[in-house]
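Table S2 (text version). Query chain:
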Amino acid sequence: MTWPGYLATHSTEQTLYFGEDGLIRRHDYDVEIAGGNSAAHYISDYMQVAGIMIPTKHRIFPRSPDGQALGEPLIVSIDVSEVAFA
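Corresponding C-alpha cell output:
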C-alpha cells in the first residue's frame, strides 16, 4: 500500500498482512524519521469493544534487508488491558 505524502505515517510504502478472519496480523514499514529502519509489527490478541475489534498485543521487531522479520531484538512491546470509547 502506498500512502499519499500529505499523511503523517511511518513510511509512504507499507505492507499489511491479514488473517483469515480479516484482521490485521502484521504491518511492515520503514521508519523514515529514524533513518529508514525496517520494522515488522505483529498485532494479536484482539478483543471486541463496542462492536469494534481492538488488538491488545503489539510486538515490533526489525526486518532484514530482504524483508524477513528478525526474532530479536524486540524493539517495542505494548499490551493493552483496558479499552473504552467515550
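Notes on Table S2: Residues 14-79 form one domain. Strands lie at 14-18, 24-31, 37-49, 52-62, 76-79.
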